[in-house]
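#dry-run=false #mode=assembly
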Amino acid sequence: EVQLVQSGTEVKKPGESLKISCKASGYKFSDYWIAWVRQKPGKGLEWMGIIYPGDSDITHRPSFQGQVTLSADPSISTAYLQWNSLKASDTGIYYCARLGSYRSGWADYWGQGILVTVSS
Amino acid sequence: QSALTQPASVSGSLGQSIAISCTGTGSDVGGYNFVSWYQQHPGKAPKLLIYDVKTRPSGVSNRFSGSKSGNTASLTISGLQADDEADYFCSSYRTTATLVFGSGTKVTV
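#status=ok
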């Protein structure tokens, strides 16, 4: 059974750093792209970027370029999303999802989501 | 980068059929057959309903169907059920190798 299990809720202050994780199981991790999706409170979904764990090829959505870092460790089937300096506007729920197809961009399995709250 | 346009809300009665539109441009919806649809219940992760415009993943009810005409894709839900009350998002591949979601539609039954 394919599963994506994300790390737990985070509460941070502006300016702090953060790295959240997404552990995959039930399939060959290095063979599928992983996407990160943000959902601000009460709002819609936003694709942030995608990473191919097989070779760490990354495509960022332009508005997130330079704001976050995507990485993956195939040895432990885990993808990461990292911030160096959080802002209040980073508050939201962050999902990881497996892309069934890179070009077509459909996500067939999703993590449960991580609530990140950034507040002073 | 602007989102695809969806109606904010659509409502219907039990057993009825409803359609949700997703309007983009020739650089996304109209240019590729790479539209997918997701259902999201409150507090839950999105669930894939349709991909590549009209393909249903295994396990998704055949009450959900997708189509596309020009720059507008549509998701039709037939035989509306109480559990269909949720938010629905479309997504498309966009030129420049990015993905874009729709603005989302709240379905009320």
